[in-house]
Amino acid sequence: MKEYKLRFKHTDGKPGFSGLLGKIRMRVGMSRSDYTVKPGLYALNSPDKASPVLVSANYKYSFDVLRAAAGELNAWILVLDTKGVNVWCAAGKGTFGTEELIKRINKSGFSKYLSHNTLILPQLGASGVAAHKVKAKTGFTVKFGPVEASDLKKYLENGQKCDEAMRTIKFPLGARLVLAPVEAVLAWPILLGSVVLSVLCAFISGGLSVFLTLLSLSVISVLTGTLLVPTLLPYIPGSSFAWKGWITGLISSAIYLLPSGAPSATFIAGVFLLFPAVSAFLALNFTGSTTFTSPSGVKKEMFYAIPACVISGAVGIALLLFSAFKGSPQ
Q: Model-level pTM?
């Protein structure tokens, strides 16, 4: 009987120095959309017909985390075309989904080669995949593995069963802070706009102190939304990320502004409308970095939070400009 020839690419569990550089690039938001691997079937080390089949996204960082966690394990990795998006976000967008999984199974042809019919998917991809549909159309049984790739070996040794710890989503301080740099870097357009506003208000009013005050508040609002909110996330009251950002931004602006004094009540009102709105918007953006939220919850919050931030920010800018004109030399 003719042996079936399986088409695949080879890889190992060592992302190497280039993987480290890529990880640093991703942490600061450099060319994230281009950091991909080609979708398809990969042989991790030296798998055979009985080796487990792991499913991942074609975001290279996700792929590297999986193969590094697998180490010397012999396995197949089926990479879905998620358009360079990580598993959790891609599941919400639908690219790490049922139809894409079925397509890759059929295209790879490994059903004729394997001695089993089980696929192991990351748990955070569960919202995008209907296991019963995959079973009906391909014959493959979908199992959802642990939340953390680091638990993969333990999961396999445990007979492909997750204990409670493997199913628990953790988001400790370290995991939150490691995401802060990319959020801060991606906030540069907001910071640039704030700098322009600071220069404009200082030019109109003729006061250097106005420029320094607004510039400082701009930096504070960005750091509040991208660093302080993630740091204090579990301790800030409320479930809305925008609310967490707004209240924290209001407090940080007040701590800086009130002791030093302000030109007028109009100026204070402008500050308290603009800069907490900036922090709220940036904190809302952090929902894409945390597993605390769901796609439907994010959409619902964006529906009311983004217009509120825009309106508050616009009124705040208008008041600051009015304050500058009012305080300019006659």
A: 0.77
